[in-house]
Amino acid sequence: MTDRKMGITYKEFKEAVDTIDVSDKIKRYFIDLICKAALTSLTEKERQEYRDHYFAVTYDDIIESAREEGLEEGMEKGKAEGIRQVAKSLLSQGVSLESISKATGLSQNEISKLS
Fold first, then answer.
1. Beta-carbon count within 10 A of 103 CB
2. Predicted confidence (pLDDT) per residue in 43-68, tens digit
């Protein structure tokens, strides 16, 4: 896809944006915004190329976002379970609820339910 006003292809524009030191998410938004602004001057073939790219990027973004969210959620659950196991172990060793609460960040009520 070539923007007639800018005189560069989509590929050239994307390569230029890729050199900017910002997050990939911001780069994708920037590219998307520029492409949408340029859509009015595109031929039907160029519009189809844009649509193909847009849907591929959107699909990739959805997959990447879901993967990141799943990893974060899994790590949080693992971390929380580890903290509960430590609290349970300390409780079985006779450490006070107050001390365990300070060490783990769990409430004394949560700790007392672990036994």
1. 13
2. 788 778 877 777 776 666 778 778 88
